[in-house]
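Q: What would this chain look like folded?
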Amino acid sequence: MAIKHKLLHFGPVIGGTTCDKDLCKQLLKRGLKTKDSHHQHLAGHIEKENLFTPDDKQWFADNFKQYFIPYFKQLSDLTTDNFYGLMPFKEAWLSNLWINFMKKGEYNPPHNHDGAYSFVLYLQVPEELEKEDKSFKGRGAGPGCVTFMYGEDQPGLKTAHAIKPITNELWIFPAVLKHTVPPFKSDVERISVSGNWYITDNVKDKEEEFNYGRITVK
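A: My prediction, written as structure tokens:
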């Protein structure tokens, strides 16, 4: 008789989806008006990384929660038996939101984020990066791609996964998951937005700042 094994996959769960282009254009318009530098709080070797205002953060939570809640709910279904080491949650708070203007030669070294979950949303990916990626001959991720890394390198196990940036595409991942972005050579600007979500179910005395960017998952 044919034997079929049960296959157990474990490790971080990353979610990707495409966002409405008009919403992304509105977000980019807001991002181009930002002036408050967030560079000193980030790991990136990127000159211009700006923080959105609290009002922008609230606008983002209201308009983009439709893309995050399904991911959070799917995780809750997976964690019913505490399979991934966390319990289902009902409320999340976007602690900060910033925009990255990545240029030629700039890069993000391996790092992780604060909070429970993080994300990257690509608002502008010039076609020059696609051409540069196709001509790339190295073994690692192509120029401007994001690589997620988990666990120790071992033969037969894939411990890194590279994702090519696409305009209006959103990727959500556990905040503790290390990731990196190599530099590109093209004289263009790659624009992305990132932020960190905290689980606030057990926070009793929610400060006033929690009123900006809080969403209900269930």
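Residues 53 and 163 are 29 Å apart (CA to CA).
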